[in-house]
Design goal:
Elements: E1 18-23, H1 26-38, E2 42-46, H2 53-63, E3 69-72, H3 78-89, E4 95-98, E5 111-116, H4 124-131, E6 142-147, H5 155-166, H6 173-184, H7 198-201, H8 203-217, E7 229-231, H9 246-258, H10 262-276, H11 281-299, E8 301-306, E9 310-315, H12 323-330, E10 337-339, E11 344-348, H13 354-366
Parallel strand pairs: 1-6, 2-4, 2-5, 3-4, 5-6, 7-8
Antiparallel strand pairs: 8-9, 9-11, 10-11
């Protein structure tokens, strides 16, 4: 596995594209086109149905008589399509009603408004590519994603549109690609199949397993992975009435489990609040448990259990906790604790509520750092 470099610094003077999701509305379409034409610009109108694309072009001509409308799609003859595209590039036409043929390789600085009809039928990466056809100069660009109505959209379509509408800042491409991977799942990284094992275990776990396998094949010493088993009897989860989409809940569970630092969990908490509102008690408890998990992994402690009165930590043989720290804990005045031959430290802590239990567990672990 090699390190990944991400370029997220935009070109000089480039502005973020303002993105709107709306029902198909005649007034909105007319205003969007006229605003672009009045500043001397050009418009892409994406209608990805070749059978009705000419009818849509006629509709635009009637709606905006001021526009010079051309039609371009992949089923046209090569010569005819070339003439249409050259005419648009040279400014002979200012509105191009087209299919997704413009998705790649089109760079027209004067074109700074794109309208995508039935945006709910496109994938996230495809919408991102289409939006990238505008805003390729120092002018503010606009993208309008037209849908038939919220009621007819499935959950995946709503999620795709929401992500694209939120991720408008410059350099958002990698984040959008990550969301797309989460929504669709990944195939085999080293094979030709579009479906593989990544979706089953999560991308982070898959790459971790892949790295371990490569290290083993290279004859490198393998360090046991610590995946702490936490059994504290706490009500810690993301409620359905807070996040209704089970796929999204699964994504967040995986991201929490993959967190290596407390800061990563703070960032996830901020994202949850921004996307879904105030985090409920069970969700906050889950985040606190995951912070405890980060500490356990760091110390290479493989289990934490609570039976109602006793808190038990199970140490891995490779724990980084010095023996003298454990001895100090055992020798504390009034301490009711013991350390068994199977590397388990048992602490008598009495009856505690959920918050007290978490605070006590964290306090004990901090003493080992």
């Amino acid at each position: 596995l090699r390190a990944l470099s991400v370029i997220d610094t935009p070109p000089v003077d480039r502005l973020a594209i303002r993105t709107y999701v709306s029902r198909f509305d005649d007034d909105l379409i007319r205003q969007a086109i006229l605003r672009e034409l009045h500043r001397g610009g050009q418009v892409f109108f994406v209608h990805n149905r070749v059978q009705t694309i000419d009818a849509m072009a006629d509709f635009i001509r009637q709606l905006v008589p001021e526009a010079k409308v051309a039609v371009g799609h992949g089923q046209m003859g090569e010569r005819a399509l070339e003439q249409v595209m050259l005419g648009f590039i040279e400014g002979k036409n200012n509105v191009l009603v087209c299919s997704t043929i413009i998705e790649n390789g089109i760079d027209i600085p004067r074109a700074n408004t794109i309208i995508v009809n039935r945006a709910d039928c496109f994938g996230l990466s495809q919408l991102y590519q289409l939006r990238g056809r505008v805003g390729r100069s120092d002018r503010r660009a606009y993208a309008y994603l037209l849908i038939p109505g919220e009621g007819v959209l499935n959950r995946d379509a709503r999620e795709r549109l929401r992500i694209l509408q939120e991720q408008t800042e410059l350099g958002a491409g990698f984040r959008i690609a990550s969301h797309d991977l989460e929504l669709r799942g990944a195939g085999e990284l080293l094979g030709a199949k579009q479906a593989g094992q990544v979706m089953a275990v999560g991308f982070e776990m898959y790459t971790e397993l892949l790295a371990e396998t490569i290290a083993e094949l290279q004859g490198l010493e393998k360090e046991d992975r610590i995946d702490p088993d936490i059994r504290l009897g706490l009500s810690a989860y993301l409620p359905e009435d807070y996040m209704r989409d089970p796929n999204q809940r699964l994504v967040f569970y995986r991201r929490m489990a993959a967190a290596e630092t407390e800061q990563s969990l703070y960032d996830l908490a901020d994202e949850l609040r921004e996307r879904y509102g105030k985090i409920p008690k069970a969700g906050s408890m889950l985040l606190e448990v995951m912070k405890l998990r980060v500490m356990l992994k760091k110390l290479r402690i493989e289990s934490a259990e609570f039976d109602g009165r006793r808190l038990v930590f199970g140490f891995h043989a490779s724990t980084i906790v010095p023996p003298d720290k454990i001895l100090q804990r055992l020798q504390q005045p009034g301490s009711k604790s013991n350390f068994s031959p199977d590397f388990k430290l048992t602490l008598e802590v009495g009856r505690l509520d959920d918050s007290e239990l978490l605070e006590t567990a964290k306090k004990e672990l901090l003493a080992f750092l």
